[in-house]
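Input record, target 12 of the design panel.
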């Protein structure tokens, strides 16, 4: 199986799913997340209403931890700061996923590369830039620095 091709397929699944976050997630960005093991989606999530679960948290919620040999596909860089909900980067680290694939970085000044750095510092393999243009064209109108989380 070609990993690059597989990454695109699952990222597009996450993008498709993220569209379901609208309009309830506003003013937070509509993000999608799928968790994949042995080339199968085992769980998925998208941004819930403000103060409720982010995409990553929803995808993780129903699963028995730790996750072994699981790859997470997220359309936006996982948040690294504790707002109204726990930081998703930390939740992914705690879940023990082995790999995280991210389409675009979060321009929110509280994040902006910090989420990615946290994952890498925890020894997780991170791949950035899968399906960037497709995700960007859907997501960028919702990316503002004043997200409330
Ligand atoms: Zn988050």
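The sequence produced for target 12 reads:
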């Amino acid at each position: 199986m070609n990993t690059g091709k597989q990454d695109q397929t699952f990222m597009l699944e996450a993008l498709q799913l993220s569209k379901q976050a609208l309009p309830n997630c506003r003013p937070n960005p509509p993000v999608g997340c799928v968790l994949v093991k042995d080339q199968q989606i085992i769980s998925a999530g998208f941004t819930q209403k403000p103060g409720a679960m982010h995409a990553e948290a929803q995808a993780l919620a129903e699963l028995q931890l730790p996750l072994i040999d699981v790859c997470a596909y997220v359309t936006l860089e996982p948040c690294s700061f504790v707002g109204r909900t726990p930081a998703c980067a930390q939740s992914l680290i705690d879940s023990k996923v082995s790999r995280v694939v991210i389409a675009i970085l979060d321009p929110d000044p509280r994040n902006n590369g910090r989420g990615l750095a946290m994952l890498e510092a925890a020894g997780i393999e991170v791949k950035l830039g899968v399906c960037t243009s497709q995700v960007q064209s859907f997501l960028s109108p919702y990316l503002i620095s004043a997200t409330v989380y």
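The two ends are 37 Å apart (CA to CA).
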